[in-house]
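Researcher: Good morning. I'm working through a list of sequences from a screen, and I'd like to move beyond sequence-only analysis. For each chain I'm collecting a predicted structure so we can compare shapes side by side. This is the next one on the list. No need for commentary yet; just the structure.
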Amino acid sequence: LNVDFERAYATIEQAINRAELGAVEADRDRRLFRVVLGQKPKEGLFARIIPGGGGDLGPSVSIELAATATGIEVSVRGEGEEPIDRALAQEILRTLREFAA
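Model: Good morning. Structure tokens for this chain:
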């Protein structure tokens, strides 16, 4: 994102909420959001692409913001030491981009 941190953080927070990705914990000081994808099977875009369904919790991911020379970089990582599927990370980033507009 080619904006300052405050604007980037607000934009990503709004996109997460609008996309209904799942349960969210925001940590502005650490510049990240923790999201449990597909918390409810009928809610959120990712409920239909997360294996398990039936009320099971999807994976937990961290959406992180980092300052770069040209703005703010947004990345998706697995929670803790958990790896995240590359396709899932790309889908989350595409969704954030779509709902940030």
